[in-house]
């Protein structure tokens, strides 16, 4: 992993995206965001809850992070302040969205945990929701670190 001053000050293109900070976080963001998407999609909704918001956030961030990665790989992103600003803005927005979705999902999961978990199917959904909460907070952390490091790169460029 390269963390030289040159790589921190410029936006990467091509395969360098997998070697520079903070762009190396894109793959884990996709993995954990995809896991949140899969886990939330596989549970049943028993009460009015914000799982629709969690699904929107996970799908939105997954799709746009994948598109952002493709733009980096094909070299569409140029070293300009506009692209660096967009990088910071997108990852800060994604971190905020994921934080709000994580808190809402944690609340719903805690409420679900207080219901009768004697039903085996309900207990399975509860366990999936717990895993989704954990992965959602990990995705929040990844997007937050990415946003902070992108802001440092933007400021130094």
Automatic annotation (TrEMBL):
<dbReference type="GO" id="GO:0016020">
    <property type="term" value="C:membrane"/>
</dbReference>
<keyword id="KW-0812">Transmembrane</keyword>
<comment type="similarity">
    <text>Belongs to the MAL family.</text>
</comment>
<feature type="transmembrane region" description="Helical">
    <location>
        <begin position="52"/>
        <end position="76"/>
    </location>
</feature>
<feature type="transmembrane region" description="Helical">
    <location>
        <begin position="130"/>
        <end position="149"/>
    </location>
</feature>
<dbReference type="GO" id="GO:0042552">
    <property type="term" value="P:myelination"/>
</dbReference>
<keyword id="KW-1133">Transmembrane helix</keyword>
<feature type="domain" description="MARVEL">
    <location>
        <begin position="17"/>
        <end position="155"/>
    </location>
</feature>
<protein>
    <recommendedName>
        <fullName>Myelin and lymphocyte protein</fullName>
    </recommendedName>
</protein>
<keyword id="KW-0472">Membrane</keyword>
<dbReference type="InterPro" id="IPR008253">
    <property type="entry name" value="Marvel"/>
</dbReference>
<keyword id="KW-0449">Lipoprotein</keyword>
<feature type="transmembrane region" description="Helical">
    <location>
        <begin position="21"/>
        <end position="40"/>
    </location>
</feature>
<dbReference type="GO" id="GO:0019911">
    <property type="term" value="F:structural constituent of myelin sheath"/>
</dbReference>
<dbReference type="InterPro" id="IPR013295">
    <property type="entry name" value="MAL"/>
</dbReference>
<feature type="transmembrane region" description="Helical">
    <location>
        <begin position="88"/>
        <end position="110"/>
    </location>
</feature>
<dbReference type="InterPro" id="IPR050578">
    <property type="entry name" value="MARVEL-CKLF_proteins"/>
</dbReference>
<dbReference type="Pfam" id="PF01284">
    <property type="entry name" value="MARVEL"/>
</dbReference>
